[in-house]
Amino acid sequence: MTHDTSPAIELRGAGKAFRTPSGALHTAVRELDLTVERGEFVAVVGPTGCGKSTTLTLVSGLEEPTEGEVLVGGEPVRGIGRDVGFVFQQDAVFPWRTVLSNVMAGPRFRGAAKAEARERARDWLARVGLSAFEDRYPHQLSGGQRKRVALAATFVNDPSILLMDEPFSALDVQTRALMSDQLLELWAGTGSSVVFVTHDLEESIALADKVVVMTAGPATVKEVFTIDLPRPRKVEEVRLEPRFVEIYREIWSSLGEEVRITRERGAVHAA
Ligand SMILES: Nc1ncnc2c1ncn2[C@@H]1O[C@H](COP(=O)(O)OP(=O)(O)OP(=O)(O)O)[C@@H](O)[C@H]1O
């Protein structure tokens, strides 16, 4: 990143249309204006299929916008940046490598010597509570443990931007809450900017500094809510606070309308 004062991420009038197999153009997202400051945790919520993942792929450089601009660190995105980390619903772990080797893979790929990569990987495995599991293979772990490996394997690369697409949605409710707390602990002090896509409004409020509500597809930004809940937060505790409930009501009145529009469209298509 070259421009130190520029926001971490900026979308300016960004849009993406895909060519469908029949040759028609399908607009997935349109006129997206969004700024993510450095060190900010931004959650994106919206009705199913509206274009949340597409927005992330534009920021990641996996896809190019067909309209407007996407800037990371003040520069137009060109391809996948080395200081961008990803965590998706499916675990991006190598099944044939041990836990330690999985976490070492990023630093090794980025040119770190083996001993240094091992030391950094062990440090992050300790932070996620998996030191005793470093010789296991991913299939010998629980879903929550695999997710912790994925988090360690991401944070070990010291990403300045972290893109997360429903990372905890396959986990049971208790494990999900634990993982959310763990994510907040790992993120605190890293200075990384996070964009976290979720279906779960409670999760988004508990985690984020800002919640972005997207419209029914093709999505654009409908409203951005600032979450003024103090940190550090524990997700199971913060959601019982009166302010949390107030924020939830406020955002739901905006999001609920888009969910209704999406459902009604579905009913028309199904009829
Ligand atoms: N590669 C592609 N080619 C054609 N259409 C696509 C492509 N990727 C996404 N789409 C379409 O763009 C729209 C937005 O999809 P996207 O996955 O971004 O939504 P989403 O909000 O993340 O969905 P969900 O909440 O269900 O995960 C959908 O209608 C989808 O079918």
TrEMBL record:
Any GO molecular function: ATP hydrolysis activity
Keyword NAD among UniProt keywords: no
Nucleotide-binding as UniProt keyword: yes
Highest taxon of the lineage: Bacteria
Keywords in alphabetical order: ATP-binding, Nucleotide-binding, Transport
CDD domains: ABC_NrtD_SsuB_transporters
Domain ABC transporter, residue spans: 9-241
SMART domains in alphabetical order: AAA (SM00382)
Pfam families per UniProt: ABC_tran
Protein known as: Aliphatic sulfonate ABC transporter ATP binding subunit
Organism: Actinacidiphila bryophytorum
UniProt lineage: Bacteria, Bacillati, Actinomycetota, Actinomycetes, Kitasatosporales
